[in-house]
Amino acid sequence: MDEQMILIIAVGTTSLVVGIALTWALTRKSNKTKELAAQERAQAIIKDAEAKAEVMLKDKELKAKDRFYQLKQEHENSIREKEKQITIAENRIKQKEQAISQKMEQLQRKQNEAESMKTNFFNQKQVLDRKMEEINKQHQKQVEALEKIAGISADEAKNQLINALKEEAKTGAQSYIKEIMDEAKLTANKEAKRIVIQTIQRVATEQAVENSVTVFNIENDEVKGRIIGREGRNIRALEAATGIEIVVDDTPEAIILSGFDPVRRELARLALHQLVSDGRIHPARIEEVVNKVRKQLEDEIIETGKRTCIDLGIHGLAPELIRMVGRMKYRSSYGQNLLQHSREVANLCAIMAAELGLNTKLAKRAGLLHDIGKVPDDQPELPHAILGMKLAEKNKENPEVCNAIGAHHDEVEMTSLLSPIIQVCDAISGARPGARREIAEQYIKRLKDLEGLALTYKGVEKAFAIQAGRELRVIVESDKVDDKLAENMSFEIAQRIQNEMTYPGQVRVTVIRETRAVNVAK
């Protein structure tokens, strides 16, 4: 068994070795075959790459040649274009050289002509000088002969002639100036009257109103007790909050609000109206309502200022000035509402400025603002015209407007034509009859004083104050007062009125002297 096993193992081992050897030989042969195939493929790829490289090289060479030819062609074109431009420039230079040569030739000709003319002029000048010497000699001989005949020298005769001409011209000039001035005065007075009359006719005016009390109407007298309150505490709280005296008397269905400040009176009236309408009247409620109404009134003041500016066509006014314009609604001057007065002055100024060919917008602006010094928040010790001017300057108003505000009562010097217009229109608005409240007795007394002052003069027969005291007509006896004395009397009466009396506007004094010869036919 062992030998058979050994033999079998030997045979198996041999077979295995033979199989391995065969397998190795086959594998080696297969590898060689693969290497040969790979080498063949590699050679084929190399050949293919070499062929493609040759093709690409040839293609690049062709493109390079094309690009070279293209660049060469562009270069040649550029050279030809430059040569063409150079040729054109050379032609221009040649033309300019020819033109310069022609101008040089012309200049040379002109210089030669000028030299020739200069020579001729010099010769002619010498001839003229000789002739002038001869003429001067002849003139001197004639002057000497005339001096011998007249007995005076030529200078003396010339001076006498000049003096005579001066006197004649001076006399003529004085006469001419007097005629011009007289004509100008007549024309100016006539034109000024026409402008003022047209201005007054074209502006609507209002009458003066009472300005110290306001009447608050109530439905029944039971409300009075509620307003007074227990032991008068409600009325005291209302007076303390508004600064207005509240008069509750026997007047039926009415309570009187008394105070000099219209803003405070309006505040008290509106507060009372809300308290009475609400029905709750006690000190705390009164204080609350007064504060609320004060704010509403301030808003209404600003709205009034804006609406006024819009109505008058005034734009760009500073907010502070708009507020002051609104406050004018609750201010008055001698019974004349300040806002209505300012609106009236603004319209008058615009009309008058248009008649005179001036800036109507500036005139209207100055007319509206001329009295803003009467409604400041504080009360400085300054005239209202100066204060208004400072307020306008502070708010960067036009210098002409500022000067017109400050000069409308002659506190500062007038520097523009707007200033006298504002002054005149302010006088027209304030001095017309009915514009401002005045006690009838004082008005009548002033008229009597005017007439009485004129009657104190010797030779005065009658005196009449007419046109609401704006004119005083004095009739004198012709046999006692001559024309010269009548003229002096008119001046003296006007000076006495100006120095001794107080009056609005101006008073014109007219002295009338006439001689009458009367006969009766029977």
Question: What does this molecule look like?
Answer:
It is a single chain. The longest helix has 149 residues, at 2-150. Helices cover 70% and strands 7% of the residues. It is built from 14 helices and 8 strands. Helix 5 (262-278) crosses helix 6 (283-312) and helix 11 packs across helix 12. It is mainly α. The protein has helices at residues 2-150, 154-201, 222-228, 233-242, 262-278, 283-312, 319-327, 338-356, 360-369, 384-394, 399-407, 418-431, 440-455, 483-500; strands at 213-217, 245-247, 254-258, 332-333, 336-337, 460-466, 471-476, 508-513. Strand 6 (460-466) and strand 7 (471-476) form a beta hairpin. Mean pLDDT is 79; it is low at 204-210. The strands form 3 sheets. A 3-stranded antiparallel beta sheet has the order 1-3-2, covered by helices on one side. The protein has a 3-stranded mixed beta sheet with strand order 6-7-8, with helices on one face. 20% of the residues are buried.
Kindly summarize this structure in a few lines.
The chain is mainly α.
The proportion of residues forming helix, as a percent range, comes to: over 70%
**Rg to the nearest angstrom?**
59 Å
Structural class: mainly alpha
Largest sheet: 3 strands, antiparallel
- What is the terminal separation in angstroms? 218 Å
Mean pLDDT: 79
Low-confidence stretches: 204-210
Q: Could you give the order of the helices and strands?
A: HHEHHEEHHHEEHHHHHHEEHE
Residue fraction in strands: 5-15%
- The tally of strands reads 8
Quickly count the helices.
Answer: 14
Strand order of the largest sheet: 1-3-2
* Overall geometry: flat
